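Build the 3D complex.
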Amino acid sequence: MQELIHRAKSLLESGEVSRVLGWKKGENVFDVEPAFFATAEELENFVYNGFCGANLSKYMIEASTWEGKTLVFLKPCDTYSFNQLCKEHRIDREKAYIIGVGCKGKLKAEKLGAENILDVQGAGYPDCSDTLKVTTLYGEQEVAYKDAMLERCHVCKGKEHQVYDELIGESVDTCDADRFAEVAKIEAMSPEEKFAFFQAELSKCIRCNACRNVCPACSCRKCIFDSTKFDSNQKANTTSFEEKMFHIIRAFHVAGRCTDCGECSRVCPQGIPLHLFNRKFIKDINNLYGEYQAGVDIDAKAPLTSFRTDDAEPGVGRG
Amino acid sequence: MYRIAKANLNALYAAIAASKELYLPVRSAGKTNFAAWTEGAEVDLDTLKTVRSPKDAFFPQSENLYTCDRTDGKISITPEALQEKPFVVFGMKACDVRGVAVLDKVFLSEPVDSYYAARREKGIIVSLACSRPAVSCFCQTFGIDCAAPEGDVATWMAGEYLYWLPQSEKGEALTAELAALLEETDDAAVAEEKASIAAICDRLPLKGLSLENWGAAAADKNFDSPLWEQLYKPCLACGTCTFVCPTCQCYDIKDYSTGTGVQRFRCWDSCMYSDFTMMAHGNNRTSQLQRFRQRFMHKLAYFPANNDGMFSCVGCGRCVDKCPSHLNIVKVIKAFGKEGV
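Done.
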């Protein structure tokens, strides 16, 4: 972590970058917040640890409109989102100086019983340990690092950064599960079971829009769900159909562009596994149009925005 | 003081539900929220904080106000019926009960909100003391004692029993209806439980969180502070904090097309949203900094200025737990406390 701070300070001092986009210490080890740092003094509050799950790519949309370059710290999986946003001309590559930071999997405080945590030992970087020592109001406990990881880290896309100016720190590929196993499980359900599953999950939705607002693929200047010109502008679910509609429309809209960064599921206050919608689309796109991972190659033609005469046309019979 | 064996709680729920609607914490799809009790519902009194606060019981996220319909060239307007059936909200925590007192200030002052008033009249609050307060709790800052919750009936879980103390006329009446299930007992177990809770409260990291520099006087003083510029930056402009909050009371009124008419409903709104308080002339808060500032200034400065010093935060800590960017009212309170601006 000191190396990151040191490097950020020297880039600021040399004038190469005008500000730093990273993570800031909170009240506790796990409540780190995304933050912009303008001075070496402010960087004293910089932190990089196992709880820095927030994907900073989306903040670069706004930072791209500012004077000067922004130094941004990106984990391997965050770089897919950064690339995708470049591809969509939402961020300016020239406005970013990217330090690719090592990642050993990010933690979900909730899995450690967040509301009672006083301290966590072993989540610091670069020296995080396989076992976390958690001090809570009600005693101590030890939890395997792996068991406290975010869902997305169990299907890690690998330790390679897709875009960067320099790299600092080692990464670990934490993948230990099949990315599409959960999707396959749902595909195998009967229509009634599927309906019951999604009904139970989506009826928890409070329409807070956290999933949409954190999503790097949701970067429309004005979302249709915020526009007063349409009936879709509702802040509550008027009907049980509508609570599903919001999420299904969103999943369709980001299909082919979603990098599977997992931020939607990380931030959902109700723990709805929203990534499953996106993964279903990714799985189908892979099957129908060939393997495609959004955010790898910014010049590649995206499967849903290019046309080939031999394209699969699911649902359409060919004569 | 009365008590009932925990093993017998289902009978208590069934007895209440026989004549009233009953809302209580129910676990579903991995999360606990207040929901209507049904036979077989997974009642969860162990989870300290439901994701949503129980304010829905009095101020639902979405409710119809009236329906207009045009059939055969005739227009009819049907107002929504007011709550008539009595209902019980069981298991509300001390902070959430105080949250209702905050809502009362808004909805029961002139002009009285008839939908809310009807629910307050028909609603009976059975509160539950917090056996295990959490790190994110700071109700003490607002003078709330989570070991002795307000409410028509207060309850405590201790050992194998739920202890039950009526605290109002409504509470006495409910207790009388349930007399067959409740046995009289002394205060000893509850006194012990209260002492145990107090000992935990003393160890809470947010104990002693000071509201210095907040209150009515902060309305002018803190408005132009440069601190807002730093504090708001990571805000995603989502509505999580407002929608899990037991005191946020802003709502929007919307129309839903039924095909042959219009259903006019109101739903919670969030000051974090870009179209909040949108008017014909546009929006009076055009930046996220302004929207972010509004939320905290409302709770910590404007509300006390208009309500004899009462803050419209109750320290439940849900926003502390749930903000995707880990921003929260505690950080805001502390930032201004430190600066002393």
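The CA atoms of residues 51 and 107 of chain A lie 5 Å apart.
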